[in-house]
Automatic annotation (TrEMBL), chain A:
Family indicated by similarity: Belongs to the DyP-type peroxidase family.
Any one GO molecular function term: ferrochelatase activity
Functional description taken from the UniProt entry: Involved in the recovery of exogenous heme iron. Extracts iron from heme while preserving the protoporphyrin ring intact.
EC number: 1.11.1.-
Domain of life of the native organism: Bacteria
One GO-annotated biological process of the protein: iron import into cell
Keyword presence, tRNA-binding: no
SUPFAM superfamilies: Dimeric alpha+beta barrel
InterPro entries assigned to the protein according to its UniProt record, in alphabetical order: Dimeric_a/b-barrel (IPR011008), Dyp_perox_C (IPR048328), Dyp_perox_N (IPR048327), Dyp_peroxidase (IPR006314), EfeB/EfeN (IPR006313), TAT_signal (IPR006311)
Gene expressing this chain: efeB
Protein's name according to its UniProt entry: Deferrochelatase
Residue ranges of domain Dyp-type peroxidase N-terminal in the record: 58-211
TrEMBL record, chain B:
Name of the molecule in the record: Peptidase M75 family protein
Source organism per UniProt: Streptomyces griseoluteus
Positions of the Imelysin-like domain: 138-372
Domain EfeO-type cupredoxin-like: 14-115
Gene Ontology CC annotation, any one: periplasmic space
Length: 417, 378
């Protein structure tokens, strides 16, 4: 059969042209063209457009999930509060430019020949690619700059969960930047340039690249698969479900006292680097794989159901099935907004794929979101045989930058309260 | 060969340059006429202060009691042409192609120090652009420093070589790192000659096909890895000294500009970031922190000399650089027993977290340092 006779470019045909990496990128771009709109439109922008940077909430949470991720955690290196505040302002200015598809500072060329250019240049000529930059503050930040009493109780330290094997060099951080874009080069460019602006004030502690989105905030789109080959996060909160977002994701003015009022409109982010034991998973029988998840592998339908989005009958699943344990109905309605990505950082020293899920979840209160959920999963989930949590961090993600005069963290660093 | 000269001379040189540029030439030489240079222990008399561009001839007579050296130098002290070792009572004729511009004739009695100088105005079309005396002083000061480092290194390299030639493993190991310090401080100058660096400072992984491995790192491998000194090593030690003497002779002629000084400072930090922080430089000896310190000191010297100009153009930058140099110095001090000691902790004892901390401090300094060149030429 001639592959070209099909409705769209098939993956096999594309791989035939130029290798898997290229083919996936081309497929993604192809999908974007169909969706693309002229001009920025945060709710429905296609793969080329710009996502509005300003707003009551930071972009990159309810925004339709982009294809690529570069996530970086930073340590603060300065003890000077004013210098740190200036950095947040400089970062805001740079982010405002980059999310609009513009280079930082005075650009990547045309300046003084003796000076290194402000912008590193690798995103020149690329579209904004729906870049979003989302900043968060880690618990350790509040041990600095006299911020101790501004740490919200909802920014709880994560307890040690059973099975955790956390690598210190992939854990924690005083602050973080989540860069999501449909073009990986745009996301990497953003983190690289923010890190450069930050030298001397902050230093990258660890960073993670992610490639295949594993959750969707657009329910109509096909639910992406994780590296285990399963659809997961089927019932994720959609970017358009304002009531669910208000209930489960955005911090409300009534959530805390005056000391943590600066978080109103913000959210709390949990990041976990979850390594998958890829090789042993691949040796598990289809039956076991489907039992572990509680779904069928092809359609993604819950056990005993026909379609992915059919309401699951949890009791039909094994007691330790992942979907059963993670489902809101098993957890007093606990719901978090998942925004994770697959990662593959080559192979480890034993020739095993160093791959897994870089789990990102937003919630209104970590104590009522990730912590109880993970207590349950870490204790009982059948999936635990095939995964290990190796990195972990939690961040308070402040509200959005309102306008061109506002900056990330202004409410936290302002004098009042 | 020049002995070490005190750094304080840099300031004198700047003052002398300013004073000299104010006086006017009384006697001019015609094209083809030689300039008579009468050198003595405290004098350097010249028969002309102005000469047309082209071939310039100096008829030198040493009337002093010591051997002397006579040079035509640029305002930034780079040597246009020179004659070393003119004995007492002897004469020498020096000719050189000289373009239009302001120069000095320097007599160095005893072949050391700043010497006694006379202004030489070379007239003609194609005059070089207006010079900035503050930047000339900075370059002259840096050249002085680079020369000092070379002058101090040669005897230290000889000590190292002697230990190798005596087959004394322990003494050779002890003399290894100190023999590198002056080189590491001024590496960009040394590297500008092109041919010396590959001979003395190539690492095993930097060898090109067919290139013979010579220099410090080859000997480092013998001393620490093979733990024995062979006949070949003894020869290499002698070659190292020869090559370093070549470097010492050529520093005076190195092309140094304010921009190359600033970029050199940045390059020294690049060296630290890519070679020392990773422990690749001295992978057998683990004396990386000594080289690290040398690189930082050399960068700081260049910066301090350029700072008066840079501060006028961008005081925020110099403020940041002062802060970051101090922070890195303080961090490095943790790895040595006393502030004047170069007995740094062996780098294989420096843990992953500590290396990260050093790397962060290097980035914090190197980023603003990359903007120094622009602040100097603005």
């Amino acid at each position: 059969m001639n592959e070209n006779e099909r409705g769209g470019p098939s993956r096999r045909a594309l791989i035939g042209w130029g290798g898997a990496g290229l083919a996936l990128g081309a497929a993604a771009a192809g999908g974007g063209v169909a969706l693309s709109h002229d001009g920025p439109s945060p709710a429905s922008a296609g793969s080329g457009g710009a996502v509005e940077f300003h707003g009551p909430h930071q972009a990159g949470i309810a925004t339709p999930v982009q294809d690529r991720l570069h996530f970086a955690a930073f340590d603060v290196k300065t003890e000077d509060r004013a210098e740190f505040v200036q950095l947040l302002k400089d970062w805001t200015a740079a982010a405002r430019l980059m999310t609009a598809g513009k280079p930082v500072g005075e650009g990547a060329y045309g300046g003084l020949a003796e000076a290194p250019p402000d912008d590193t240049g690798e995103a020149l000529g690329l579209s904004p690619s729906r870049l979003t930059l989302t900043v968060g503050f880690g618990p350790s930040l509040f041990e600095r700059f006299g911020l101790a009493d501004r740490r919200p109780p909802a920014l709880a330290d994560l307890p040690k969960f059973p099975g955790d094997n956390l690598d210190k060099s992939r854990t924690g951080g005083d602050l973080c930047v989540q860069a999501c874009a449909d073009d990986p080069q745009v996301a990497v460019h953003a983190i690289r340039n923010l890190a450069r602006v930050g030298f001397g004030k902050v230093a990258v502690r660890w960073s993670q690249l992610g490639f295949g989105k594993t959750s969707s905030t657009t329910p109509d789109a096909q639910t992406p698969r994780n590296l285990m080959g399963f659809k997961d996060g089927t019932r994720n909160i959609a970017g358009t479900e304002t009531a669910r977002l208000d209930k489960h994701v955005w911090v409300s003015a009534s959530d805390g006292d005056a000391k943590s009022a600066w978080m109103t409109g913000g959210s709390y982010l949990v990041a976990r680097r979850i390594r998958m034991n890829i090789e042993t998973w691949d040796r598990a029988s289809l039956q076991e794989q489907e039992d572990v998840f509680g779904r069928d592998k092809g359609e993604g339908a819950p056990v005993g159901k026909a379609k992915e989005h059919d309401a699951p009958f949890l009791k039909a699943m094994k007691p330790d099935a992942h979907v059963r344990l993670a489902h809101p109905d098993s957890n007093d309605g606990i719901t978090i907004l998942r925004r994770g990505y697959s990662f593959t950082d080559g192979t480890d020293g034993l020739g095993r794929l160093d791959a897994g899920l870089f789990f990102l979840a937003y919630q209104r209160d970590v104590r009522e979101g990730f912590i109880p959920l993970q207590r349950r999963l870490s204790a009982h989930d059948a999936l635990n045989e095939y995964i290990q949590h190796v990195g972990s961090a939690v961040f308070a993600v402040p509200p959005g930058v309102r306008d061109s005069h506002d900056w990330w963290g202004r409410a936290l660093f302002s004098k009042e309260a | 060969m020049r002995a070490a000269r005190p750094i304080a001379i840099a300031a004198t040189a700047a003052a002398a340059l300013t004073a000299l540029s104010a006086c006017t030439a009384k006697s001019d030489a015609k094209g083809g006429d030689a300039i008579q240079v009468t050198a003595a222990d405290t004098r350097c008399d010249t028969s002309a202060k102005s000469v047309p561009a082209g071939q310039v001839t100096l008829k030198i007579e040493n009337k002093g009691s010591r051997a002397t050296e006579v040079e035509i130098v640029f305002p930034d002290d780079r040597i246009v042409s020179e004659k070393e070792n003119i004995g007492p009572g002897t004469k020498y004729t020096l000719t050189a192609e000289v373009k239009a511009g302001s120069y000095e004739i320097a007599c160095r009695p005893g072949m050391k120090g700043h010497g006694v100088r006379q202004k030489l105005d070379v007239t003609g079309s194609g005059r070089s652009t207006k010079r900035n005396p503050a930047l000339d002083a900075a370059v002259a000061g840096y050249r002085e420093y680079a020369q000092d480092q070379a002058d101090e290194t040669v005897p230290l390299a000889e000590t190292f070589a002697k230990a190798v030639q005596a087959g004394d493993l322990d003494a050779a190991k002890k003399a290894y790192a100190p023999s590198r310090l002056g080189w590491e401080r001024t590496e960009p100058v040394a590297e500008s000659f092109g041919d010396i660096d590959p001979k003395v400072d190539t690492r095993e992984d930097g060898l090109e096909d067919g290139q013979k491995w010579t220099g410090w790192h080859r000997l480092e491998k013998s001393l620490w890895q093979d733990k024995k000194i062979g006949a070949g090593d003894k020869k290499l030690a002698a070659e190292l000294v020869t090559d370093l003497k070549d470097w010492q002779r050529r520093v005076g002629k190195a092309e140094i500009t304010p921009t190359s000084m600033a970029n050199g400072a940045k390059e020294l930090l690049d060296e630290v970031a890519t070679g020392k922080v990773t422990g690749e430089e001295d992978r057998y000896a683990h004396t990386d922190l000594v080289d690290f310190k040398g690189n930082v000191e050399g960068a700081q010297k260049a910066y301090e000399l350029l700072k008066p100009v840079a501060a006028k153009n961008d005081s925020a930058l110099t403020g940041e650089l002062d802060k970051q140099f101090a922070a890195l110095d303080k961090l490095l001090d943790k790895y040595r027993p006393a502030k004047d000691s170069y007995d740094f902790v062996s780098y294989d004892k420096v843990g992953k977290d500590q290396r990260k901390e050093l790397s962060d401090a290097v980035n914090a300094l190197a980023e603003p340092l990359s903007k120094l060149a622009a602040a100097v030429v603005k």
